[in-house]
Amino acid sequence: MTTMTEASVREFKMPDVGEGLTEAEILKWYVQPGDTVTDGQVVCEVETAKAAVELPIPYDGVVRELHFAEGTTVDVGTSIIAVDVSGGGTAPVEAPEPAQAKAEEPKSAGSGRQPVLVGYGVAASSTKRRPRKGPEIPAQEASTAIQTELNGHSSAASAAPPQQRPLAKPPVRKLAKDLGVDLATVVPSGPDGIITREDVHAAVATPPAPEPVTQAPAAAPAPAPVATYDTTRETRVPVKGVRKATAAAMVGSAFTAPHVTEFVTVDVTRTMKLVEEIKRAPEKHGMQGLRVNPLLLVAKALLVAIRRNPDVNASWDEANQEIVLKHYVNLGIAAATPRGLIVPNIKDAHAKTLPQLAESLGELVSTAREGKTSPAAMQGGTVTITNVGVFGVDTGTPILNPGESAILAIGAIRLQPWVHKGKVKPRQVTTLALSFDHRLVDGELGSKVLADVAAILEQPKRLITWA
Predict the structure, then answer these.
(1) Per the count of CB atoms within 10 A, which of 280, 394, 395, 421 is most buried?
(2) Cα 428 from chain centroid (whole Å)
(3) What is the rounded CA–CA span in Å between residue 317 and residue 24?
(4) Active-site residue list
(5) What phi, psi does 277 have (nearest 5°)?
(6) What is the rounded distance in angstroms from the CA atom of residue 38 to the CA atom of residue 282?
């Protein structure tokens, strides 16, 4: 068997693509063993609890091995791909090493480079995996034991060895427990005999065949086990990625911050007329090539209201028992994507003119639709806007994003009878809802902010003056 020197092989480890993330799922590989890669080339796409991101390889070489299949969830710091950097051509095939015996990759003494994402920079320190509990076993003995387990036999086959605990990560064990699956009966497909989520679901969908009976049973056969749920009428979707993070954040927010929601119904006829006016003559307002819609003007109105009432832009520091007043506004825009609800934010939105805000909003929306929103774009938000009106909903009681003090919901804009200048006329009307953290924002402050937003939308040409 052809072997290679350790110095010629580089192991690219799963990086921490967001603050505090511990794992990511491999969505798609863009390379295969034998392919040539160059420094900066994207080799795979992964999904974290915050977003889907592409990972570039940090060196040149030939792909030797992909350690994990698509759909596998991998811990941060675990090697996911091996690359031969010797320049000797197609990498030879070699028996995979046990995961426990893989050595940590040393940093290059010349350049000191670390695997990083494009535009993310080098992390301050590398992420280390917590060692497994249990007695220490010499590497050679561990390798021999694992190889014996993979081969399925040993020289002392007649002696019954002690039954080993099936290899599976804690989330997989919990999934098996919830579905009533005995891990000892599951056939593993992961590296080094590790049981994956897919293996557990396969065990549920295809129950194991009964063992052959060598002699007549003394009693009637036991009834077949009943499935934990009706697979023909129910579908169970594992909670992971963006949906899992959103669920945890919303539960934490709802039961940590005391929510208060206030409502106001607004005549936005002039706002809708201004939108059409800018669309007809974008050059007059410096909006050439930019998308103009009611959301843009609502966002600008909220920024003006925050400028008038800066105390609403704050956060609660529970550890230090302090209110943190923010002198900047990172404006979050809730976006529904196939992977779940995400809230990227426009950095320093308070300092942007109306054309600059329109440009940033357009980039944010297009990036979210493509599923390419970076984790950095979803960090550091101060206030948020959610537009439920696009779904035909009048309004709602939005839940705060953790760490933020307020969130504004925009309802559907409808033509309704409205008293205007003493007469009932058809007008464009919507309902706004502002939820806020009552520890930070009292009723007076919340009411002032909401009333200011409503007043600006009723007379929106003020936005051009304050652009």
Answers:
(1) 395
(2) 37
(3) 29
(4) 438
(5) -65, -45
(6) 44
What 3-state DSSP class applies to 87? coil
> What does the alpha-carbon distance between residue 425 and residue 418 come to, in Å, rounded to a whole number?
5
Give the C-alpha separation, 329 to 310, whole Å.
10
Local confidence pLDDT in tens for the 467 residues of the chain: 444 456 688 999 988 766 556 788 888 899 999 999 998 899 998 887 666 788 899 989 999 999 999 988 888 889 999 999 886 544 444 434 444 434 444 444 444 444 333 333 334 444 444 444 444 444 444 444 444 444 444 444 444 444 567 787 777 777 777 777 888 888 888 877 888 877 877 776 655 555 555 555 555 555 555 556 677 778 777 777 666 766 676 676 666 778 899 999 999 999 999 999 999 999 988 899 999 999 999 999 999 999 999 999 999 888 888 989 999 999 999 988 776 778 899 999 999 999 999 999 999 988 888 878 887 888 899 999 999 999 999 999 998 888 899 999 999 999 999 999 999 999 999 999 999 999 999 999 999 999 999 999 999 987 766 55
What letter does residue 276 receive in the DSSP assignment? H
State how beta strands 406-410 and 383-387 pair: parallel
Residue 116 burial (C-beta neighbours within 10 Å; 0-12, 13-18, 19+): middle
The helix or strand, by DSSP H or E, that contains position 384, with its residue range, turns out to be: strand 383-387
Are 381 and 403 within 8 A, CB to CB?
yes
d(CA 82, CA 92): 12
Six-digit token string for 387:
């537009």
How far apart, in whole angstroms, are the C-alpha atoms of residue 106 and residue 327?
Answer: 43
Q: What one-character-per-residue DSSP string does 166-224 give?
A: PPB-HHHHHHHHHHT--GGGPPP-SGGGPBPHHHHHHHHHSPPPPPPPSS--SSPPPPP
Report H helices in 352-460: 354-369, 443-458
CB-based burial label for 52 (10 Å; 0-12, 13-18, 19+): buried
Q: How far is CA 268 from CA 240, 431, 455, in A?
A: 40, 10, 10
**Could you tell me the pTM of the whole model?**
0.55
- Taking the mean position of all CA atoms in its chain, how far away is CA 310? 30
**Phi then psi dihedrals of residue 131, to 5 deg:** -65, 145
Q: How many CA atoms lie within 13 A of 170 on its CB side?
A: 3
Position 144, amino acid: T
Per the CB < 8 A criterion, the answer to whether 337 and 242 are in contact is: yes
* Single-letter code of the amino acid located at 215: Q
C-alpha 22/C-alpha 9 separation (Å) is 25
